[in-house]
Amino acid sequence: MGSETYSQVGKAQPQIDALAKATGQAKYTADFNLPRMLVGKLLGSPHPHARVLSVDASKAIALKGVKAVVTGRDVLGKKYGMFKSRRDETGLALKARYVGDPVAAVAAVDEETALEALDLISIEYDVLPAVFDPEEAMKEGAPQLHDEYERNVVADTHYDFGDADAGFKESDHIREDHFFMQPNSHGCMEPRGVLVDYDITGKFTMWTSTQSPFHVRRDTSRALGIPLSKVRIIKPHVGGGFGGKIETHPMHIAAALLAMKTARPVQIILSREEEISITRIRAAMQIHVKTGVRKDGAIMAQYVKIIADSGAYSSTSIMMMYNAGLSCMIPYRIPNFKYDGYQVYTNKAVSGPFRGHGANQPRFAVESQLDMIAEDINMDPAALRLRNASQTGDTTISGLNFVSCELSRAIEESTKKAEWDKKRGRKETNRGIGMACGGFVCGARGAGHTASGTNIHVNEDGGVTVLSGASDIGQGCNSMMAQITAEELGIPVSDVTVIAADTETTPIDPGTFSSRVTFYSGNATLIAARQVKSQLAEIAATLMEASADDILFRDKKVFVKGSPDRFIPFGELVKRAEGFGHGRLIIGQGQWAPTNTQFPDRKTKWGNVSGSYSFSTQIAEVEVDRETGQVKVLDVTIGDDCGQVINPMSVEGQAEGSVYMGIGHAFLEQTIFGDNGQMMNPSFLDFKMATPLECAPATMVEVGKPDPIGPYGAKEIGEGLLITSVPAIVNAIYDAVGVRIKELPVTPEKILDALEKKETEGKS
Amino acid sequence: MVTFYRRLPKFDYVKPGSMDEVLKLLARGTNGNFKVYAGGTDVVPGLKRRELEKPETLVDLKGIPDLDYIDHDEKAGLRIGALATVRAVAGSSIVNKNFPLLSQAAGRIASNQVQNRGTIAGNICSAVPSADSAPALLCLDSNLVCINEKGERQIGIDGFFKGPNETVLNRDELLREIRIPPMPENSHGVYIKLSPRSRMDLAVVGVAALLGVEKGVIGHIRIGLGAVSPTPMRARDAEDHLCGKKANDAVISEAAQLASEESKPISDHRASAEYRKMMVEVLVKRAIHQALLGVSSK
What we know:
Helices cover about 25% and strands about 25% of the residues of chain A. By secondary structure, chain A is an alpha+beta fold. The model of chain B has no long low-confidence stretch (mean pLDDT about 95). Chain B is of the alpha+beta class. Chains A and B meet through helix 3 and helix 19 of A and helix 11 of B.
């Protein structure tokens, strides 16, 4: 998708911090140390549901090296959270709602002492009845976790577009199926952490591993009852987020309290066990899908019902349940759609945003069912999808408007590349091929602050500084912004320095989530860079006696169009600008949010929530070992309409990441809960993620065209592709050996059981 | 399975400079006084998880000089010192040439990092039912040279394991050396590990098979099973069934079935007992076929 008219866009290049990361020079939160810094540790509740009656920390305080202990009584009890209507966390709990729920924290001179102190804190609890299953939790008389939510239903989301009943009546074939997607952990390479410095003016400076510094600032200010302007959040390098690090964590509040109490810097770095068990996980969902089709495969109506396990706190429940329903209407034209989504509190680890944010679960269910329908009506699954694929210009019954959509092309090109027709239905080989399609927002419209901004300063030597509030968590948005800036100003990427993000020095930004960063911050950067360009063009035009419209920026030179010999080197132009007229500083400022979106109607949920949408097809080829039940993914082919690719290398990284994460999710990853709701496998030994040896080669075919709204026509690829990984694999398994796994993860035992069942049924 | 790491409990630590010093120390000890460790890849996490009883003193064996040897003699076979790391054994060209079964099994233990620290002797002494080296060492008729202040004794590996995390070693005793006799004539061995992840994982079932063939007849046969009983075990019924027979599909299938029957797995979060039993059958069958292939390609 490279274009000859671009110097940077469409050119594969390593991320600007690749060298620093590869050599270990990149600094993460744990790498920062301050003089007199203390180490903080969190103490979790041993009970799934219990009121803290009293805390005796005298023995801990008496231990040499312990400087402070804080508990739920030290926080104001002011609730914070990402969504105003669902704030339910306070930092340290007075009522613990799951095993591990932080109830106290300690600061000591070193980690050993802090850990020893935890053992010395004695807490008296009033143990309350607990509930672990969402359906149990919804029943009358079940233990209630939060006073405000009767029967523990924290999100109650319904869509009713068109007339589903009528649609089912017009259908020639209707299927109803039930699916389950398991909970899993993000598995970030870097466990989250925070370092807080509290100074004499009452200002908190926090370095933290986050996807959204501005959210952490808001919540910290709220929880501690201090002005927003007294909290500064700096985001260093972050080792992965995948949605898990969007929100504020009790460690932020605890570390701030401890720093205030001791007047010393305090650092809390979560252990791997804490990272898996007391942060966020993907919500387990029971998904019921009813779909009606005509003989020709046209979808006439769909009904989806989801019961999601929220765990102990709300997190982003309302957004997740909204997205779960909404995402069902993206890839295919569905004339009548009904949805009932419930998210329910239970006394377990907290579910929250996770790459795909509620779309993965129904996508798995719907894409599985589409294959079953295809078989029922004797239609090729790819043809069925093509029959229903959304098209450019479509407006869905829920008001989503697709300004660009190459899904049909994605299906056609990827099936061709994967040799779909040749490879389908070779059951004797135990090899199979399966597909799934999906679509995703490029940043969903939020209720509050939604725009992104970029400031660009040009330095005396022509080096350029980009200041952005966007959070690079490894996905490469700093490189994306550098590339856009370099493209516009005709300079190499290596001449661009990106500073992001610091709540005091960079523009306010919602954060990295909802696949919004390239779309929003990319456009903001484009605007800022074009401002810089026009300021410089005006000066260059005067100096070279040409029209500003004819000034071109390329190869570190500023030309007059059509006269390659008439140019000023970029650095020299900047230098000359300094003394131009009464003196000039070259500063560009951009802010951007799409203008074609609406916040969805509160009642009906109608509205175009995103400026554009990505579309994807993923095809997996698998081989099943009929004796052991083990499955190997052999090959993956991807057709992804992410618009104009800015950096093919980053896009490949996202695509491969989606494939690998999907393989782990399909077969290995599951957080397991014990009788007491405690997480039983918070380690990388028992919470198994795929190693490179489980992964399959992924091939991408180019299908996207420039989008009219994204920067240079770019759209998202971070999340929309992952949601198709698991169903493609599950459909491929069915093609290979004729068994359908409806409850994830796919384990060897489930495969063998299903094969055995199939054999017995075949005989009888 | 709840594996919350906590800080290390408090204990004394000594690193004696000789075997004599270690043995003297152990002779003075009473129950629970001393815990010896080499690589620490089992002991340290066990202590952090509070799964191991806290000793008064942790005795680091890494101060004993010249105990990390891997020596080979055509007649006497292989000798592996107690401090030889998993990596050293797995990567040894001598081991690979003469006892490929052992390199194969050692190479499947945990991760590279654990292999660099952990020892083969430790893998045996921890007596975890799923220890990858155990089925191979069982097949190789290994002898374990154990030592205390009074002297040495040799224990066949078959009689070494008592139960999960339990061996016949007395509290004053150390495993000093693993001895492996030369491979039987015209024989080949393989280790097959079944685990959800192909690396960095514990065996759900581990099967080693070693067989020697004379004129088409199986003359020597050993089958070692891991993770399917309280200790690593030999599948003797299966061995007996095969010994002296011509290998064919039917005989091999019958033997695999016998191995499955004599295994005594438990159900846990990693797999059900039923699945493990089924897999013993599948893997024993595969291991024997592969071993036969190995013999015939010699």
